[in-house]
Structures are given as C-alpha cells and as structure tokens.
Amino acid sequence: MHALTTVADVLGIPARKQETASPFALMTRIEEGLSIDALDRVSALLAPGDSRFRFDIVPRATLARRKAGGVLSADEGTRVARLARVWSLALDVWETPEAARGFLFRPHAMLEDARPVDVVIRSEIGAELVLGILGRLKYGTAA
C-alpha cells in the first residue's frame, strides 16, 4: 500500500481522497482521466529543466486539445502513472532526485542502450524491464 500512496503523491492526488484507498480506486481514477496537472507534476519531477519533456509523454498537439477539458485520456494517464511508479522506485533506490534522474536519463546496457525513461514511456513491458533493474539494484543483485 505504501507504493500506491507514493504513486498517488507523485501524481498529486491528495492522500485523503477516497480514490487512492485501494489499487482499484487508483486504477479507476487514472482510467477516468488524470488532470493535466499530474502530467505537469511528473514532468517537473523527472526533467525539471526541460519544458519539452512533457511532449515526450503526450504529443504537443494532443496536449493542446486536452487542455480544453483539463484531463488526459486513459492511455495518457496510464503512461503518466507508469512514470510516477518508476520515479518512486528510482528515488527509493538512488535516494536523491539527481541520482534517480541520472539513472533514468542515461542509456543502460540491459535496455539495449536505450534510456530507461524512454523505455518506460514506450510501453508497460518497458516499464516492467526498468522496474526489474531497479529492483535488482535495490536488493543487491546484478543490474
């Protein structure tokens, strides 16, 4: 449950809201549409000096259309939540935001020299690969 709370925190969902009381409630919240603020929050945490990073997550034209309604689609929200989940574990493993960013934005041999952040954005399978590497780092096995 701690990991769930951490992901909700990264997404900017207040802890007191009933929506984060269970994994299914958080899934429903994401499927119904995360706010654009969640995208901005995750972008600022992962790439604070890069105003264009958010367009790697949601293309510029799509984001412009989403601003009218203020919410992301289920697929876009899932992508943002995936990044929040990976960020939470990277921060836990590396202990500082700078070190976590260093890992996420540097090519990794176990990902065929792709940057972990790009692999996470690309697909859920990519996120699982990155989470696996972070888990091995956290628990002291080869990564």
Automatic annotation (TrEMBL):
Q: Which domain of life is it from?
A: Bacteria
Q: Please name the InterPro entries in this protein's record.
A: Antitox_Xre, Xre-like_HTH, Xre/MbcA/ParS-like_toxin-bd
- One Pfam family assigned to this protein is Xre-like-HTH
All copies of domain Antitoxin Xre-like helix-turn-helix, residue ranges: 26-85
**Residue span(s) of domain Antitoxin Xre/MbcA/ParS-like toxin-binding:** 90-140
Q: Name one GO molecular function term.
A: DNA binding
Q: Which NCBIfam families match?
A: TAS_TIGR02293
Q: Indicate what this protein is called per its UniProt record.
A: Uncharacterized protein
